[in-house]
Specification:
alpha+beta, SH3 type barrels, 18 helices, single chain
Length: 438
């Protein structure tokens, strides 16, 4: 009604001032359109201010999180953008009927605008869904970011098809039919997203990787925590804070290590060996046994073992005059018992998980005495401290059992040997062979 009154005023004013009726009507239509656009914009901003203010207050008072996700991702703002587009679509045919060419072009731009706003609205809604989903516990094991990205790609393709169909004046079905011949090009363009989608589905179904997992993938140089899983890439923050990006499909087609099992087990493995010099392994003498019994951790073990061996040797009438007859304790066996007792007394070592102190195959580097246990502490720095403390103590304890650690001779060893040989060649010095024996 207001537009009609304003348009009639301009028409009457122009005809009174000598303009033709046709020109007056054209100017009236243009004026009506401009005024309509101004009114629509004013109504939009007023409506946006009122509606957004009301929604903001409701969201702040609400205890739910889904409305916060919708508000923060501007879903309501995107929805309000449809209002001016729809109003223009109604006003244009009424105000520009005398200009069919311009009416058609402006109406086309308005329709493209509406399609773009709808795509933007749906994209914001998908972002809100992702934020809402992240608040659930299941999101840690079943990420959906890759699937939402697939939906977005499909959404943008559909939007592009509608826009192109509007520009060329053809039905969207016509363009969809032509996609068959273009499929090879599409497969080439979207190769990585397609492989990423397949890889993401396989990772999700098999629960291979989750955000927060620590993975090691030597081929890609990744050694750190997974911080993001998307359609085409997985981002890993390495221990030195650098970021490694891995194609999603690579985690399915190639091997990698996931430390999640260790974290969920409640322990972290300690697997390390000490090489014992085979020449230092001997039967324990009576004096040594009495000395070892003063060690509190193995006193009970030695008493029990001594009774067991004495009973066996007595039952089988073993001749004690020869050391190799019967069963006897060795310094290496007693040291293994000490290691086991020492680890049992350590509060940081798990007693429920695998607990082994064992000998490995002897070789050129001596007898490997391996410790295979699990630390209760998983934090890297603390775990390393616990492991170091254990081996510091054991290395310092080895000589107390008459054993020696195997170590390849160093430059200092050869230097001392040379000094001894040179001393032996001086007048009054010992012979070379005696020096070597010393």
């Amino acid at each position: 009604m207001v537009l009609i009154q304003i348009g009639s005023f301009f028409k009457n004013w122009m005809t009174r001032n000598g303009f033709s009726v046709e020109m007056a009507e054209n100017v009236r239509d243009i004026t009506d359109f401009i005024i309509a656009v101004v009114i629509i914009l004013v109504l939009y901003y007023v409506l946006k201010y009122i509606v957004i203010s009301i929604i903001r207050k409701v969201v702040r008072r609400s205890n739910t999180t889904w409305d916060d996700a919708l508000f923060n991702n501007k879903v309501f703002n995107k929805a309000l953008l449809l209002v001016p587009g729809l109003m223009l679509a109604v006003v244009i045919p009424v105000t520009l009927s005398e200009f069919p060419v311009w009416m058609e072009r402006i109406l086309l731009v308005t329709q493209i605008y509406i399609v773009a706003v709808i795509i933007s609205l749906l994209n914001a809604f998908l972002n809100a869904i992702y934020d809402i989903y992240q608040g659930f516990e299941v999101s840690k094991s079943k990420p959906i970011k890759g699937y939402l990205q697939v939906f977005k790609i499909v959404l943008f393709i559909i939007g592009a098809i509608f826009v192109i169909s509007m520009l060329i004046g053809k039905s969207p079905i016509y363009l969809l039919g032509g996609l068959g011949a273009f499929s090879a090009v599409l497969l080439l363009i979207f190769r990585d997203p397609i492989l990423g989608l397949v890889g993401g589905i396989q990772m999700s179904v098999n629960d291979m990787v989750r955000p927060g997992d620590w993975i090691v993938m030597d081929k890609s140089g990744a050694d750190g925590m997974v911080i993001d899983i998307s359609l085409t890439t997985v981002k890993v923050q390495n221990w030195d804070k650098t970021i490694t990006t891995i194609p999603t499909y690579s985690l399915v087609s190639e091997s990698f290590i996931n430390w999640r099992g260790m974290e969920e087990s409640g322990g972290r493995r300690i697997k390390r060996s000490i090489n014992i010099d085979m020449n230092s392994v001997k039967f324990a003498s009576g004096a040594q046994l009495e000395k070892f019994k003063k060690i509190q951790l193995i006193r009970e073990y030695l008493n029990h073992k001594e009774k067991e061996l004495s009973a066996y040797n007595e039952k089988n009438k073993i001749d004690d005059g020869v050391l190799v007859n019967g069963r006897r304790q060795t310094n290496l066996g007693i040291f293994r018992a000490y290691i086991s007792a020492y680890l049992r007394s350590n509060p940081n070592i798990s007693q429920e998980m695998t607990f082994l102190v064992r000998q490995l195959q002897p070789g050129a580097s001596g007898i490997p005495l391996e410790i295979y246990v699990f630390s209760k502490i998983q934090a890297w720095a603390l775990y390393e401290d616990i492991q170091s403390d254990i081996f510091d103590h054991l290395l310092a304890t080895i000589p107390e059992f008459g054993l020696q650690v195997f170590q390849n001779p160093s430059g200092a060893d050869f230097r001392r040997l040379g000094e001894r040989l040179s001393d032996s060649q001086e007048p009054g010095g010992s012979s070379g062979s005696e020096a070597i024996r010393k």
